[in-house]
């Protein structure tokens, strides 16, 4: 297998979303990092496709898609509420496609169509990312939330701004430090993250003094110049990091 190629991986994502939008109109709504990347200009790469399904099952579509392009696929989870599939297109990392069927009836005001793709509004994506940030310590959630705040803060509803502010207050600056120090992600520029976080804190009206400002800015610099601090981190097995056994064709 060849090494991970963002351009090739991104092309598979584009083909998948294009075919999905053409043949399964109004059946699925894009969410997550790829929604921000493909429809709202997110400045980091996103590897997976996350969807909410409203009508049809995704399995039949994946099967037809893979046959069309000569790919293999593996069904990793198949329940009434979640369908997870890995598509092996020949690269080092398969494309994960996950569909949630927990919300069968989604109000039309919660999503829109951008670039031919049904996608949640930026307001809804901000709510989702705020809730994700409050419930887990993933640096991608934090980065995406800061991106939304940097580019779309004025377009958020007052209620969503309140949820965003609550999420930032709930985690605080210390948790920002912890997340940055304990998450290594090649897709995240930590200097850029620190800058966006500082701007978002300011937009959200959260109070901090000059010492806190300088501490936030220096976090990413400290990461590269000082030995990593040893912290107790609870790690849970990632069920998605399984190999490609059981691929279908």
UniProtKB/TrEMBL annotation:
<dbReference type="Pfam" id="PF08843">
    <property type="entry name" value="AbiEii"/>
</dbReference>
<dbReference type="InterPro" id="IPR043519">
    <property type="entry name" value="NT_sf"/>
</dbReference>
<feature type="region of interest" description="Disordered">
    <location>
        <begin position="216"/>
        <end position="249"/>
    </location>
</feature>
<feature type="compositionally biased region" description="Basic and acidic residues">
    <location>
        <begin position="216"/>
        <end position="225"/>
    </location>
</feature>
<dbReference type="InterPro" id="IPR014942">
    <property type="entry name" value="AbiEii"/>
</dbReference>
<dbReference type="GO" id="GO:0016740">
    <property type="term" value="F:transferase activity"/>
</dbReference>
<keyword id="KW-0808">Transferase</keyword>
<protein>
    <submittedName>
        <fullName>Nucleotidyl transferase AbiEii/AbiGii toxin family protein</fullName>
    </submittedName>
</protein>
């Amino acid at each position: 297998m060849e090494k991970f190629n963002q351009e090739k991986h991104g092309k598979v994502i584009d083909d998948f979303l294009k075919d999905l939008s053409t043949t399964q109109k109004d059946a699925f709504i894009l969410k997550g990092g790829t929604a921000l990347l493909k429809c709202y200009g997110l400045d980091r790469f996103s590897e997976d496709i996350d969807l909410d399904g409203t009508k049809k099952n995704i399995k039949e579509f994946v099967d037809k898609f893979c046959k069309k392009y000569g790919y293999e696929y593996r069904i990793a989870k198949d329940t009434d509420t979640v369908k997870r599939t890995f598509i092996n297109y020949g690269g080092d990392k398969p494309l994960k496609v996950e569909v949630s069927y927990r919300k069968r009836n989604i109000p039309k005001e919660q999503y829109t169509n951008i670039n031919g793709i049904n996608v949640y509004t930026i307001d809804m994506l901000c709510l989702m990312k705020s809730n994700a940030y409050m419930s887990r310590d993933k640096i991608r959630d934090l980065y995406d939330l800061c991106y939304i705040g940097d580019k779309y803060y004025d377009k958020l509803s007052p209620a969503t701004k309140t949820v965003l502010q609550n999420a930032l207050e709930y985690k605080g600056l210390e948790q920002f430090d912890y997340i940055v120090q304990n998450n290594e992600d090649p897709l995240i520029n930590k200097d850029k993250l620190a800058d966006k976080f500082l701007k978002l804190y300011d937009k959200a009206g959260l109070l901090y003094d000059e010492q806190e400002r300088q501490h936030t800015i220096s976090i990413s610099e400290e990461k590269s110049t000082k030995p990593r601090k040893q912290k107790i981190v609870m790690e849970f097995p990632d069920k998605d990091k399984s190999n490609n056994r059981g691929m279908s064709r």
